Amino acid sequence: MSIYILCLILFSVGLYCVLRKRNLIKIIIGIGIMEYAANLFFILIGYRQEGRAPIYAHDQVINNMVDPLPQAVVLTSIVLGLALMLLLVAISIRIYEKYRTFDITKINRLKG
Question: pTM of the predicted model, to two decimals?
Answer without folding.
Answer: 0.85
